[in-house]
Design goal:
309 residues; alpha/beta; Helix Hairpins; 7-stranded mixed β-sheet; 10 helices; 9 strands; 17% strand
Length: 309
């Protein structure tokens, strides 16, 4: 799995230009390691990031591999953010019923933005080329990061089983604040009706007073936006979500599952990507479960009203 498009490159972690010579690179590594070392009051996470950066570019072979687009070192396969090819299943357990195209709209937006940034008429052989992506403005990389997050969530949710129904990339009439006003995922099952937003801001976030906070958010209010989108869909179908969930890459949430109170009866939660499927399968603490008849009724209403972005 390649790094997020929003992740700092090894050169950025070490604080040098990508064309720094070997001596500059070595001095920068030693300096960064000394500053970040936990024994001298540094940040352990930063210390590990510096060490990993050196693994990726610290030797001529590793650096050459990274610069060619290999994000995992000289011996790993090349990093790519292109859509993954379908993989054959290794078990016969029924999957959750799924509708829509997770990450599809975000990928379309990314392709449009990256082509516009490169320039009209300019050749663009591979819009997912790692060197191209890393050089793009942050807002463009953010769109791609969100597409990858949505696809990862869809893979996780598909394992829930036949008792669950999932809709991806739902269109809503909620205010989009310049972004497509869509809901990434809606999950229905015996443990409730979950409105889920998959996000990757490239930095840590946490819940505070029912809203997400963190430097990487740059003023966004994700829970408020999620609630508005869920309300718009619920109003059309005459149903109410039992949970509002934001799912982020594991490294950006301090806890696997963090609760943030309720909003109009729906439990608010911030969930690590690796914890999402089990959180939905178990149900969130304080969130209402649904009976079999109720699940069927809600599913029928949603199937009759859901539109895809």
């Amino acid at each position: 799995m390649p790094d997020s498009p929003l992740a700092d490159s090894p050169y950025e972690v070490l604080g040098v230009a990508s064309d720094a010579d070997a001596t500059e690179l070595r001095l920068a590594y030693r300096r960064a390691l000394r500053v970040a070392h936990p024994d001298t009051g540094g940040d352990p996470a930063r210390f590990h990031a510096v060490q990993r950066a050196w693994v990726l570019v610290g030797t001529p072979a590793a650096r050459a591999a990274f610069d060619r687009g290999n994000g995992g070192g000289a011996e790993s396969t090349p990093a790519t953010w292109a859509p993954a090819a379908p993989r054959p299943r290794r078990d016969s357990r029924p999957l959750a019923r799924s509708y829509g195209h997770p990450g599809g709209l975000s990928r379309e937006r990314y392709l449009g933005l990256i082509r516009e940034w490169v320039g009209r008429g300019a050749p663009l052989d591979d819009p997912y080329d790692p060197a191209l992506v890393r050089g793009a403005p942050r807002d463009i990389r953010h769109v791609l990061a969100d597409a990858l997050a949505e696809e990862a969530t869809a893979r996780s949710l598909s394992t829930l089983g036949i008792a669950y129904t999932i809709w991806h990339d739902l269109a809503t009439d909620a205010a989009g604040h310049g972004l497509p006003p869509k809901l990434d995922h809606l999950v229905l099952g015996p443990t409730g009706l979950f409105a889920i937003q998959s996000e990757d801001w490239g930095g840590p976030v946490a819940l505070k007073r029912g809203e997400l906070v963190g430097e990487a958010l740059a003023g966004e209010r994700p829970i408020k936006a999620l609630a508005a989108r869920a309300k718009a869909i619920g109003r059309a179908a005459k149903v109410k979500p039992t949970a509002l969930v934001v799912v982020v890459p594991d490294q950006y949430a301090a806890e696997p599952l963090e609760l943030g109170g309720t909003y109009r009866g729906a439990t608010i939660a911030l969930v690590r990507s690796s914890r999402l499927a089990s959180a939905v399968r178990e149900g969130l603490p304080g969130s209402a479960h649904l009976g079999g008849t109720e699940v069927m009724e809600v599913r029928s209403r949603l199937q009759a009203t859901v539109r895809f972005a």
